[in-house]
Amino acid sequence: MMIMLATTTVGAQQVNDNNTPLHLMRPANQQRYGIPTQESVKKAMDRVLQYIDSETPALLVDKRTGKEVTHLKDIDQYTQLKQGGFRLTSYEWGVTYSGVLAAYKATGDKAYRDYVYKRHKLLSEIAPYFQKVYEKHQNIDVNVRRVIDPHALDDAGAVCVSMIKAMLDDNTLPLRERVDLYTDYIMNKEYRLDDGIFARLRPQKNTVWLDDMFMGVPAVAYMGKLTGDTKYYDEAARQVELFASRMFVPEDGLFRHGWVEAMNPHPAFYWGRANGWAVLTMCEVLDVLPADHPKRPMILSLLRQHIAGLARRQHHDGFWHQLLDRDDTYLEASATAIYTYGIAHAINKGWVDAKAYGPTALLGWQAVNQSVNEKGQVENVCVGTGMGFDAAFYAYRPVHVMAAHGYGPAIWAGAEIILLLQHQHPKMNDSAVHFYDEEVPTNEPIFNYDGKIRY
Q: Which pTM was predicted?
């Protein structure tokens, strides 16, 4: 029998399985693969920050003339926040504020801190003036109305928790009045079912949305941290347990997007970003819940089960699918970024095993990084999505760079990956060999697909 060896040439040298360690050849990935440097991660984050800074002006204008309103006493019914690509008071931007604050902590770059503080201070300063206009005219910019009269968890929770985080870092920030207003809405005014779980009246009466686990619970937990009042910790932990009892499917390790009181069986669509809100909620709650709280073991166990379920479904290019259990749906970046953050954060906190999940987090970052274009826009992000009762509803949702949901998670993921690189010294898989595009380790050759040594 004749054995044929495929060969190629590096300069004058033939490369074949007899004289070249072929297992060192670069894999046929469609994107970067391996362990990034902290510098490369921050470069991607910086592009995103520069882009969102340009798209979220912290200014007031007269909507009739477009001229800037520079004095607070001049605020009237015609005054509005200057419009950019994104809204300063939306829940998506509450997520962004938290992600950017995390980036400041991970990098020490004051540009991240200043981005958040500038916008938080603006919202706090203008609120009393717009309150007077609102009481008189009941007709003000809806983006400001959220700050003085929240109507839903979407208006309150994400921005509230970002403000609490800022206050915990700098107690001179004048944000407490806004925080108290938001917390009052969450604790006392949001619609609930009989057992107290946050709920909505759409798309059907008494519907529970997994999204609301994030829109309400972290702010309550952080209020416990801010005030020291245990009632907030207890309520946050209770809400996590209530959501899990209805939404978590243990055999799949995933959360359903919706639960409808009058339906049997309940819909079981594992929408990507909703599962992101769940894993993010558990991370946020565990960050502040006291170590001896009786519900902490339950939440930690739930997080571990969820991360295990998510890791099993990661695509080989690092992304997760729009519907997590349907590989024929598209690869989506906002959920991927949130999972990357959540898994890396759980590793950094010691909640899950670094060896088991480190490669998952690093592969996820490569997908997030691939989604950040040269302008700093985050691509492959599903637009805002309601609750559906068939697969097509989710599978055909559009993606767009102006979907605000991707920006905060992308920065947040990068911040946590930087911490992972600082403290965990991660390794990828069964080799000391790492595969890079821009950054490569020293003293070890890496081979391309064609056998040519890359350096």
A: 0.90
